[in-house]
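Risk mitigation, structural track. In case the binding assays with iron/sulfur cluster fail to produce interpretable data, a predicted complex structure has been prepared as a fallback.
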Amino acid sequence: MFCYQCEQTTHGKGCITVGVCGKTPETAALQDLLVHRLKGLAGWALHEKATLGADTAASLDFFRAAMFSTLTNVNFDESRFVDYVRTADQLTAKIRSRVAAAGKPPLEAPSVPWFLPHSHPFAAMPSTDYSVDALAAAGREVGIESRRSLTGDATLIGLQELVCYGAKGAAAYAHHAALAGVDEQAATEDLMHAMAFVCTPEAGGAPAVLGRALQVGEANLRIMKALETAHTSAYGHPSPSEVRMGPREGKALLVTGHDLTDLRTILDMTAGTGVNVYTHGEMLPAHGYPELRKYPHLAGHFGGAWYRQKVEFQKFPGAILVTTNCVLDPPKGTYEKNMFTTGETGVTGVSHLAAGDFSAVVARALELPGFTAADEKAADALPPHLVGFGREATLGAAPAVLDAIKEGKLEHIFLIGGCDGSEGSRRYYQRISAMLPETSMILTLGCAKYRLLGQDFGTLPGTALPRLLDMGQCNDSYAAVQVAVALAEATGSASVNELPLSLDLSWFEQKAVAVLLSLLHLGVTDIRLGPALPAFVTPEALQILVEAYKIKPADLKHPEEDLAAMLQHG
Ligand code: FS2
Ligand code: SF4
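Fallback model:
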């Protein structure tokens, strides 16, 4: 196997024997094959649209769900990938037949150095053998190693992967948005264009591939906007709200991941049953939405960031529903029987529930003992966390923020957010946030916020403004961008880059890649990125990004030097 799509990749180079995430070589090869087939499906669906005016809706729907399944920490279940490949083959075969039946020319598989002619995605035919072994063997033929050795150009293949990872992250958000009621078909189609593009001769040069990556960032902005619209239409605009960070006595059900629709279904199904519902991981911002926190049995939040789940889930005396990433394989003989996956998530040996069909997880919550009165008492001492600084709430505070800037009470704003992870190097974000001057504010979002929890940032001296504003999930980066643009306009700044605003971002997986591409598309410069730079960006590609966008690696050993530089230059 060879996989380097996430930040924790082995030795900062690539996972080659087994994933640090736990992904097996078989699953890695199946995912490689699926991505290859999705490139083919994208090409053929767009070809059918171009030649016959056909609707891409059916392909789109599957495309974004299947892309999402290949993100880091989403799905480890081989059998599910066999099904995804089979469906991709069936959809592509049907398109081929319709194009042929209409007497239109087939989609040509152009000659490119990174695919052998018979293994070009546009030429792929349905498998004759859907065993894991056969599909994994086919996947190994089209993986990154194969394409790098065919071209001898690690920089080009790395940039093509940048397009692919950005498209994966954006597809995941598009999938969430569609499930939540806003279907961004045009932007999803742009992601299909991007995946088809990397199969064409135009993707043979670094500038063109980088340009396409920025287009993925632009599509992702539209998608994050759609997701924000879906969330706020269904659940109201987030508003500041204190979250209890521990349990109450009684039966318990934990909902993890990002999917607010699944959380609401669980809240409806458990109403009146005596089961308390808790959020975990990226679900913490759910408490900011009026239509979710109105449920009295949404009792609080349990646990920290995703990487602590193997320890924390063993201590949870109730049932657990995994709606999206990040999920990890439970240690054998622990909480497998209490955990359920849904949507695109999957773990071998863990029950998978169809969308909205959550009676099994509720039944399991009723069987398990739940929390005791002593657990509740111990949790009473935990400080609450303030969530709910979505776009409206933060812009509502904008006049006070502008006054604070004018009066010299607010001198700098830091965006410290993104992903969290298990590496000790991520303590950089705790260390730097503890050093920030009192005259600064911090916007945070994504699971990186867990690096800031437990520190009391208080209020800006002489104001009632909290210094830490939790804007929500990683996808709420859209709201953060809108706030920055509004602040730039209100202060008469030429662009976001002129603001006393510094972005110190922590990345881990492919949604973060999509967000980064959106920021670059907007022309945001001087972003600090850590803890490690992407392994798929070679030194040559990094040089391009540094020259164009002044991207900087986080100085993990000397956060005080990063801070000094940010205060001076932004
Ligand atoms: Fe955190 Fe994991 Fe949000 Fe990422 S819970 S690293 O997938 O999407 O952020
Ligand atoms: Fe390694 Fe990350 Fe790929 Fe998992 S997703 S195999 S940890 S690079």
